[in-house]
Sequence to fold (411 residues):
Amino acid sequence: MSASSSVSSSPYHEKYHFKNQYEDYSEDKAKPYIDNNAVSTTNRITAKLAAKWGSMLDELKDWTSTDYSVYTGTAGVGLLFFRKNPNDTRNLRNIRKQYLQLEQLKNKRVTFLCGDCGPLALGAIVSYKLDDQKIYNFCIRKLTAFIKVVKNSSSDLPNEYLYGRAGFLYALLFVNRHVSPAPFSDAAITSIVSAMLHSGEKLAKHLKIEKECPLMFQWHDSQYLGAAHGISGIIYLLLQARKYLTEAELTNLIKPTISFLSTLRFPTGNFPSSLGPGKQDKYVQWCHGAPGFLYMYCEAYRTFGDKHYIYAAEKCADVIWFRGILKKGYSLCHGVAGNAYCFLEMFQTTKDERHLYRAIKFAEYCLDYTKQREECTPDRPMSLYEGISGPMYLLLDIQDPLNAKFPGFTL
Ligand SMILES: [Zn+2]
Fold:
C-alpha cells in the first residue's frame, strides 16, 4: 500500500528544498530506466559513470587534507575507492598510501564516521586483503583498546553514530563482516550493545518516560531523533546487530520504543529533529527527520515481520520524495544523495520497483548537479559525507541496487 494519499506534496517548507519536478513512478515511465530489477545498462547514470569518475580523479589530483576521518576526510575517499575495487591489489595499496594516515591518528574519537575507528577499520580490512600482518595487527590492537572505554556504560560517552557507541559498534561489525575469522568476539560486541541499552534505559528513567518509551538517548543534552545524532539511527544499528540482543531486549525495550517514536510523527509524515517543546517540521535529510526513521522501520520489519513497519516506512519515503531535493546540495549527510539511499533501502525491503525508480531520479539529480543550484558550498568538497565522494558512492552503488549500502551507516 502506498501512503502517497496521506502525504502532502504542497510547497511545505520550500525554504529547505526545491519542488520535486520529476514525474513519479509509473510502469511506462520506469521502462527506460529499469531492467529486471536493476538499472538498465543504457541508462544515463550508467552511461555517464565513467566520465564522472574520470573528472573526480582529476579533481583529486591536487587534493590534500589533514582531516583523516571517514565523514569529511581522507578515509572517506579511501572508502569510495574500496567500494569501486575492493579486491584489486593496486587499488588497495593506493588506499593505504594515499587515504589512510594511520600513524597520524590521535586516539581522539571512537567512531567510524568522525573518529579514529573509521580509518582503523578500513586499515584493518585493506591490510587483511593485502596480507600485511603488521598493519593489520596494529589496527586490531588499536580498535580493541577502545572497547574498554566504550563498554563502560557509566562514562559520559554518547550513544549516537557520529561521536558515540553506535559509531564504534559499527566499526567493529564492519571489520567482522570483511575479515575471516572475525577478529572481534561475540562477547565484545555484546558488551557494547549492553552498554548502549543500559545507557538508554537510564536516561528514559531519568526523564520519567520509561513506561511508554523504555529507551532514550541524548547528545549535548538534547534527545535527538534522527540518524546521525539520534535514537532512530541507534535503534537501526541495534536492529542490524539483533543477533547480539536477547528476545526480551527486542520485545521489551526496542519494540515499545519504536511505538513511542511513531507517535511523534508530524501530520505531514515527517519527524522532528529532537524531543521537547518547540518542535519544527523542517528537515528531511539523513541526519535529521524522516530518513533515519525509514531505515529504523525497514529494519524493524526485517526483525519482527510486522507489515505495519512497512507502511510507516512508505510514509517516510513519500515525504522524502516530495521534500528531498534539498537546497543544501547533493551530499550524503544533508543532501540529495543521502535521500536517494532511502529509496534503495525501500527497494531492498519491498522489491517494489517504484522505489528503485525514485532512487534513480534522485541519482540523476546528483549526476546533473551544478553549483548554481547550491545554496551552501560544502567546506570539504571532496569528502564522503559533505562533498562529491558521497554522490559518487551512490552512483556506483545504484548499479547493484539490491546490494547498495549507505556507507558508514548500513552494514
Ligand atoms: Zn547532515
About this structure: Residues 228, 285, 287, 333-334 surround zinc ion (CB under 6 Å). The radius of gyration is 20 Å. The longest helix spans residues 186-206. The chain has 15 helices and two strands.
